[in-house]
Amino acid sequence: MAHLLGAERLHLEFPTRVVFDEVTLGIDEGDRIGVVGRNGDGKSTLLKLLDGRLSPDGGRVTHRRGIRIGTLDQSDVVDPGKTVAEFVVGGIEEHVWAGDAKVRDVIAGLLGDVPWHGQIANLSGGQRRRVGLAALLVGDWDVVFLDEPTNHLDVEGIAWLAGHLKRRWPTDAGALVVVTHDRWFLDEVCTDTWEVHDGIVEPFEGGYAAYVLQRVERDRSAAASEAKRQNLMRKELAWLRRGAPARTSKPKFRIDAANELIENEPPVRNKVELDRLAVSRLGKDVVDLLDVSVVYPGREGVQATDAATGAPVAHTVLRDIEWRIAPGERTGILGVNGAGKSTLLGLVTGEVQPTSGRVKRGKTVRIATLSQELNELTEWADSRVSAVVAEQRSSYQVGDKEMTPGQLLERLGFTTAQLSTPVKNLSGGQKRRLQLLLILLQEPNVLILDEPTNDLDTDMLAAIEDLLDSWPGTLLVVSHDRYLIERVTDRQFAILDGHLRDLPRGVDQYLELRRAGIAEPAGVSAPSSTRVATASLGGADRRNAEKELASIDRKLEKTASQIAELHEKLAVHDQGDYVGLTSLGDRLRELEASVADLETRWLEVSESLEA
Q1: At a CB cut-off of 8 Å and minimum separation 6, what does 522 contact?
Q2: How many angstroms from the chain centroid is the CA of residue 469?
Q3: What's the gap between Cα 331 and its chain centre?
């Protein structure tokens, strides 16, 4: 593979610390690299060094002659004085860019709800971000650097972006380097992972799941001070291995090593015990939505207008919702922006009143919401973290263990020095963690998380998920982070065309329904020239593919059992019987080769179902 760019002995210092020291790395054609690390350790700075926006204090960065580099920064770089069309495709005539399949795909995938000829100045922050991403992706680049590209994308948009990046270049062409806290996206797109920490960049083979495995192996030999971090990542690995096969059946993922590491690791949640505790705290009644509908007055320019009067037509957001929330229920809510997720949560909390139907709440219900706005911290802005914590409860029950607020802060990544920091001076991720702690110290029995992953790195997300695993209450989560949804909830619902639909097969089923064209919000559509049919398997072909996938799963399970039996036979076989040992060894190699073939076929069928 041809070399595209490289960094040699990079050194960079800020006034208060050394960011990088003696960092050497390279990017070749075909590389798909995910960059992870704690907030503030230098992930975005690394991208700026590699693409030439920032010069190192020592060392050098070299680019192949004529290389084309495209970058999406975290900052808003769109020109508010232009229209969306002008910024994305420039002055190119419509019949020209509309004839380019890549451009059509980008516009349809990212800008379906954005007015094509509207002024950028009138767009929301999330829409501007998507316009900037679309403008980048319609270009031709040898290397693409993306800094948090999934921000402001919903589950469907993230799945589209992953698919686009996977098919953007041939396998051994182009290169991608992406900084993101979206762990599903990392696993779906990346073949290598760079961890930025302590002034270095440490490479790992594979996506997020493979990175977790290798990091656990690394942490096993670390000093005792790393014990807490090691245990947390082993728990994360246990969930990955027991979860969807797509994460762990990739041929490069060392399944045997993973199973050995987690053989004594219990499931991430003791569901029976949590349900028992939830019932004791809540009683049998939580919140019941009974035949509930919510209708909002029409909004001019957003919903359809009456042909005769021109007045906005009333908009039904939710209709005929029947949802009886159980004690200890852990549910994820999916839906596009504007589908009614916030309205649904408002019904649960009482902030929204139904237009018809009724909402019934249990007498002992105490609801708390982790909102996106950090409103809970406003009154504490000038107070030190330690003072805020001191005014809360003196202890908190985590599973069968009692912890002080200080211990909880440590578990959520706060250092002793940070306890004296005023709340207003905390980073976004630190504020988010403190916000969660203050809510948990109130000991609600129903917890609502509304986009809780904002401003958090992968380590902190794992820490929060670990804390939630032992939380014995009802948990409702709205998030575009697919990994989080699958990790902390046991079932998922989607709001489709105003109705609440159960998703027995989870996020995959939701994406299938969306690809089939179900429940596009009124008034949301791509520019007419960009509407293209989505290629997908027909009903019969899909059923056949699903059957084959199930058959492969059974064969993998059976073959794994046969391999285990052969290992036992080899262990007790007469070591002087070379003929017998050779025969057993040949059979073992055949089975291992069969596993590799089955895993490859599993991935092929899975990709055809997702196409």
Answers
A1: 303, 304, 315
A2: 18
A3: 16
Interaxial angle between packed helices 506-515 and 155-168, expressed in degrees from 0 to 180 and rounded to the nearest 10: 80
Buried b / exposed e across 311-347, counting CB within 10 Å, b at 16+?
A: ebeebbbbbebebebbbbbbbbbbbbbbbbbbbbbbb
Cα of first residue to Cα of last residue in the chain, in angstroms, is: 28
Residues making up the chain, counted from first to last:
611
Pairing of strands 356-361, 499-503: unpaired
595: CB partners within 8 A, 6+ apart = 556, 559, 560, 563
* Distance from C-alpha of 377 to C-alpha of 360, rounded to nearest angstrom: 30
Classify residue 217 by its DSSP letter.
Answer: H
In angstroms, the Cα distances linking 11 to 18, 33, 55, 251 are 8, 21, 10, 36
Helix, strand or coil for residue 470? coil
* Exposed e or buried b per residue across 46-75, where buried means at least 16 C-beta atoms within 10 angstroms of its C-beta: bbbbbbeeeebeebebebeeeeebbbbbee
In the block, which residue shows the tokens 């004296």? 420
Q: Give residue 176's identity as a one-letter amino acid code.
A: L
Q: Could you tell me which of 204, 269, 272, 275 has the C-alpha nearest to residue 243?
A: 269
Q: How far is CA 273 from CA 73, 157, 400, in A?
A: 45, 37, 11
Q: Which two tokens stand for residue 352?
A: 């929204």
CA distances from 95 to 86, 102, 104, 105, 116 (A): 15, 14, 11, 15, 15
How far is the C-alpha of 495 from the C-alpha of 369, rounded, in Å? Answer: 20
Q: How far is CA 259 from CA 234, 262, 264, 564, 593, in A?
A: 11, 5, 9, 12, 19
Give the pLDDT confidence of 344-381 residue by residue, as tens digits.
Answer: 999 999 999 999 999 999 888 889 888 777 777 888 88
CA 570/CA 40 separation, integer angstroms: 51
Question: pLDDT tens for residues 447-458?
Answer: 998 888 877 788
Contacts of 396 by beta carbon, 8 Å cutoff, 6+ apart: 402, 403, 404, 405, 408, 440, 441, 443
Whole-angstrom distance, CA of residue 19 vs CA of residue 197: 9
- pLDDT score for 565: 79
Phi, psi of 82 (to 5 degrees): -105, 165
Question: Across the chain, how many H-helices and E-strands are there?
Answer: 21, 20
Residue with tokens 């949640």: 269
- Note whether 275 and 328 are within 8 A (CB): yes
What CA–CA distance (Å, rounded) separates 192 from 177? 10
- CA-to-CA separations, 13 to 42, 44, 54, 212, 525, in angstroms, rounded: 11, 15, 12, 29, 48
CB 23 within 8 A of CB 7: yes
Query: pTM higher than 0.90, yes or no?
Result: no
Tokens of 584: 């057993």
pLDDT digits (tens, 9 = 90+) for 538-559: 556 677 777 777 778 778 778 8
Task: Check whether 570 has a pLDDT greater than 50.
Answer: yes
Return the number of other C-beta atoms located less than 10 Å from residue 468's C-beta. 23
DSSP codes joined into one string, 303-356: S-B-TTT-PBPPEEEEEEEEEEEPTT-EEEEE--TTSSHHHHHHHHHTSS--SE
